[in-house]
Amino acid sequence: MLTVYSPAHQRHNPSLELLDGKYVSPVESPQRVSEILQAIATTQLGPTLEAQNLGLEAILRIHDADYVEFLSTAWSEWVVSHGTYDALPLSATTRSFRSDRRPRCIEGKLSYYSFDAGTPLTAGTWDAAIASAHVALTAQAHLEQGSVFALCRPPGHHATQNLYGGYCFLNNAAIAAQALRDRGAERVAILDIDYHHGNGTQSIFYDRSDVLFLSIHADPADDYPFFSGYADEGGIAQGDGFNHNYPLPLGTQWHLYQDALHTALHRIRQFGPDALVISLGVDTFEGDPIAKFCLHTDDYRAIGALIASLSRPVLFVMEGGYAMEAIGQNVVALLRGYQDHA
Ligand code: OKP
Ligand code: ZN
């Protein structure tokens, strides 16, 4: 299988990450990509290709222009008043607060355009985020020659049309799905198998029937992103019936996980998409440092094989996965499982 990546991901390299009250060395690190690339090379999964710069047009199909403008200028504004330590928002508009007025100052703008304090913005964040979106778009452009792996970093599935958070800035999977639609696919399904609910992707397509969104993740009552991902979120207006969440309990193992996966795959079959986007997180792994499911490396092989049973072109888009010793083998296991059964 072809892998698309960009070395520009390394430019997003925060010095610290705020994780449950502690300043820790970032969990979402450049090493994630180097581990995966190394596993792809040693297992000879297939060729790798550097992403092309495909411009802003496809990104603006998903994200608001003022949000993109903010992301591309935030660092230079921040540096003026703070210098070169990482930018981190501390407030957010919630409940009775106003969200209709955009603050003038950079501290306020960071808060206005984000939904958590766990996502540092650094000197190279914009370059990395835009390159990550171009990884997804370059991969999309190769989908006619067969299924492709977009090795995106930073990840994207928490980013909404105008909010960053959860390590995500631009929603790579949503951008690629929209590009598929714009290039002639009538129906696209996005299956999100990251441990965390893909709140950004859900919200982007919530009122649409042309892009089916399904997500298997930790129950939001127990884990991040807390305010999205319940089973009763079914879509609105035209999109009613085209959003499916499968929240699972902490400690979920393969036997329970596979039930949800079978149900989701059945839905996708009924929908009959022209192409499938997989938001691929391997933070469902038993050894993941920030997540609480218990999948094993062999289970990823099985997931790949089950996805292959849909017999559709698949664009795999990298999302989370933080167990450095196993991220490479888990991603390759899934992609091999897919390839061996496609
Ligand atoms: C991004 B992706 C741990 C809190 C972690 C942020 C998680 C972002 C995950 N108690 N908060 O979906 O892998
Ligand atoms: Zn995740």
Secondary structure layout:
Layout lengths: L1 E4 L11 E3 L2 E3 L6 H12 L5 E3 L6 H4 L4 H18 L23 H7 L12 H17 L6 E3 L21 H11 L5 E5 L6 H7 L5 E8 L24 E6 L5 H18 L3 E6 L16 H12 L5 E5 L8 H15 L1
Bound molecules: {5-[(3-aminopropyl)amino]pentyl}boronic acid and zinc ion (ZN).
Describe, in plain words, how this protein is organized in 3D.
The protein contains 10 helices and 10 strands. By secondary structure, the chain is α/β, with parallel strands linked by helices. The strands form 2 sheets. Strands 4-1-5-10-9-6-7-8 form an 8-stranded parallel β-sheet, sandwiched between helices. Strand 6, helix 7 and strand 7 form a beta-alpha-beta unit. Helix 9 runs parallel beside helix 10 (327-341). It is globular. The mean pLDDT is 98. {5-[(3-aminopropyl)amino]pentyl}boronic acid is lined by residues 19-20, 118, 155, 158, 166-167, 194, 196, 224, 281, 283, 290, 319-320. Zinc ion binds next to loops.
